[in-house]
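User: I need a structural model of Angiotensin-converting enzyme from Neodiprion lecontei for a docking pre-check later this week. Nothing fancy, just the predicted structure tokens so I can convert them on my end. Input:
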Amino acid sequence: MILLNKLKNFQIFGTFLIFLFALEESDERYIEGLNVNLGEALQFLREYDREATAMCNRVTMAQWQFVTNITDNYRRKMLDEQTLKAKFDRASWRKAVSFAWSRIPDPLARRQLKMLATRGRNSLTDDKFNEIYHLIAEMKELYTRTRLCPYKENDHQCNLVLDPDINKIMAQSKDYKELSYYWRAWHEAVGPPLKNKYMRYVRLANQAARLNGFADAGDQMREDYEDDSFQQNIAEVISAVTPLYKHLFTYTRHKLIDRYGDVIRKDGPLPAHILGNMWAQNWQGIYDIVQPFPAAKKLDVTLDMMLQGISPLRMFQIAEEFFTSMGMIPMPPEFWRMSMFEKPTNREVKCTASAWDFCNRIDFRIKQCTRVNMEDLFSTHHEMAHLQYYLQYRDQPLLFRNEALPGFHEAVSDAIGLSIMTPQHLHRIGLYNNSTDDYESNINFLIMIALEKITYMPFAYIVDQWRWRVFSDGDADMTTRWWELRLQYQGIVPPVTRSESHFDPASKYHVPADIPYVKYFVGIVLQFQLFESLCDVAGHVGALHTCDFYRSREAGRLLSDVLSVGSSRNWKDTIREMTRGRTDRLDAGAMLRYFEPLAQWLRRQNQMEPVIGWITSQEDTALFAHWYKSKSTCLKPTSIALLLILNALYWIT
Ligand code: X8Z
Ligand code: ZN
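Assistant: Understood. Predicted structure tokens for Angiotensin-converting enzyme:
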């Protein structure tokens, strides 16, 4: 049956596929050809590695030139290089699927061929490939070009951009109505014009996935995780984290009621616009409201950095010393010569900090408009951790010069972050004298990290839950489905009534931009697993959140071993090595141990609360679900289905 379907699909794309077919005895999911010649496969991969490396270098160089000197000329050059690369990728895919790759006996060659054969949307005809490519570009363009008018200002200067203008207002304003204005204006400017384009995109993405042997585009996205129980694994993680999330939620609700009064129900969900972020994805913006002990000493070494006359260059040297103190790789001379450490004054640049691998094993750079403050000191370490990962896997073939699984790059950088942001570390590098090792400062510290990472878990979980469901079940009720997930996992509701035409999921860039999201969820889980492992081998004793593995050669050795394999093997082997045999799965245990002192404190604070978490009322669901709005159809289709089944069972028994 599967074979028949595949053969039928083949009819619609070019003649070159005539000699391809799915082999029944191989893994039935994927497209493969007939060629089992190992010598030819190895020869192809050698050529691919050489040509793709040169291509990668040219594209990266063009991108770097553009973002460090924004001109139309450099933009054009970059787009030209990207187009050439897309053509090259397409030709490589054709060649890769001409092999019966799952029967190639060399496991590393097989793995590389599989990567080439199963990724991307090259199974589409030229017309459709171009269509989806331009559709995504158009959606991104529409999103990034959106501008808003300011609240209550009549000067008609409608040029506020999301980043940084509106993001800043969402994090800083405490004016309920102002926040509501920006929330609504953003959602209504972005969502509606994207809905039809998105629906077409879903169809094309699904076609590409099916032609490639997947059930749908979500199934294809999950292939990156090479794990049939991946969905089960992440569902277990979110269940394990939910009790802590609900306690943090309840404590925050209490503080928000103190601030905004009874517009917030004591046992209900929270309105999405007052949590310090456009998508309520993390709540760092309201730390000032939630902070339990405002009088406790604040951890900020900015003044110390200034008093010591630390320059941006010195910040990079401090970060490098963190890695060399653990016996890891120093930054190469090219890094010091070619990076952009400060904002140039003579040209326009994109200032978002980023780490760059130019794919030639020599050239690695960071771009950052560094300011001398604590936030940028952390960011410097974060970006350099990305570079350390690039350096560690630089001797792998190009296809394996990649993170072990999507999200691991961020996990590594963030695990380093957990170590360097401790007062213990800042003291060891001579930036912090007073000890903040009192109970209140510790709770403040943990709440701050929890407002960044624990609140993010349900959001990072639902984006792809929603997307995968659209890919598998179709585009009906997309906005309602979005809010059902938001309410179920995050406990938030829209501040104003929604309808299907609002298409709110598109308010998040990664949705129209076709960027998978579950990797961010994976990244948070793994950073704690990695952090705990490194703390263990470094011999840390005491509460996990106070661990700093600076200067630990043992931690450096383990980290180097884990990073240097890149993506050359299944990530489960890497996680097993990382946790020294304890597990090969995503596991919330380390994260929960890190936050245990906070969890205990929150449980005590919430003792008098009537409800831990939220109770969903009709009033909440009526904000977005049309079947709750009219009295005649007040039952959800799922409830109706359940009633019908119960009814049928009644008659059968
Ligand atoms: O998209 C990003 C980065 C690029 S990888 C800016 N992040 C996610 C988001 O903004 O939703 C970083 C944190 C999560
Ligand atoms: Zn990063």
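Before docking, keep this in mind: Residues 38-118 form one domain.
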